Amino acid sequence: MADEQQQPRSLREYGMPDANGVLSSIVRPNVAATHFELKPQFIQFISQDSYAGLGNENPVDHLSRFLKKCDTMKLTNVSSDAIRLRLFPFSLRDDAKEWLNDEGANKYTTWDSLAKAFLLKFFSQKKTSKFRNDISTFRQNEDESLHDAWKRFKWLQRQCPHHGLPDWLLIQTFYNGMTQEFRIYVDATYEGSIMAKTTDTVTSLLDEMASNDNYPHSDIGSIEV
Questions:
Q1: How far apart are CA 174 and CA 159, in angstroms?
Q2: Which residue, 123, 148, 177, sits at the end of a domain?
Q3: How far apart are CA 181 and CA 194, in angstroms?
Q4: Are 90 and 43 in contact (CB under 8 A)?
Q5: What CA–CA distances, in Å, run from 23 to 20, 28, 29, 132, 222?
Q6: pLDDT in tens, 60-83
Q7: pTM for this predicted structure
Q8: Which domain covers residue 83, as residue numbers?
Q9: What is the DSSP string of 207-219?
């Protein structure tokens, strides 16, 4: 009976740290694998490209790079969530790490919930509005090839995948944002305005043309169409 009763603590003991109070905001899923270990080299690989939460950093880019790294690690009887949830804290530093530590105990049980919370914290409404505006007002530069313009336009969309603009509007925006010479060139190449074609067809056409086009805007005038 004496062993079952809690022994009185001294005043000094009340002020001593207790490891039982150290809790993580991430619940790490159990794994069925008999031998599971995150190698120090892989942890270092993740940490080399850490995210600090600075204004000039893009959290979408960070998640993309993090997932690509995690996908290089495939283990039998170990889920993707188990790997990602264990490794993600190693990909953060400074303010971003402090945010995760302050989220409260056992808050995230899935990768989707953690990734969503991360984006809500570090991808502000102001940043979303800026990227959405950059996409909506896209213009091809005077000395920019079709290849570079199309690549830049798609890059803007990847930076803000939640921009909310439908595909048809994106294609229309890019077409209207091209220089007049390039619009004439593109339309002539496909024997009429590409605006008469479907969204998927135009997307494929632009992908094909851009992949074969590396000449600058100033060269268009010398090309027979």
A1: 17
A2: 123
A3: 14
A4: yes
A5: 8, 12, 15, 39, 68
A6: 999 999 999 998 888 878 888 888
A7: 0.68
A8: 23-123
A9: HHHHHT----GGG
In contact, 34 and 76? CB cutoff 8 Å: no
Q: Distance between CA 26 and CA 62 in Å, rounded?
A: 19
For residues 147 and 174, give the distance between their C-alpha atoms in angstroms, rounded to a whole number: 12
> Which of 123, 147, 180 marks a domain boundary?
123
Beta bridge partners of 16: none
| Neighbour count for residue 131 (Cβ, 10 Å) | 20
- Residue 118 and residue 95 in contact, taking contact as beta carbons nearer than 8 Å: no
Cα–Cα distances in angstroms (integers) from residue 139 to residues 31, 111, 146, in the given order: 50, 37, 11
Residue 130's closest CA among 165, 163, 155, 154? 163
Torsion of CA 59, 62, 67, 68, to 10 degrees: 140
Q: According to the model, what pLDDT value does residue 2 have?
A: 47
User: 4 lies in a domain?
Assistant: no
Sign of the dihedral through C-alpha 173, 175, 181, 184: negative
Enter the DSSP assignment of 69: H
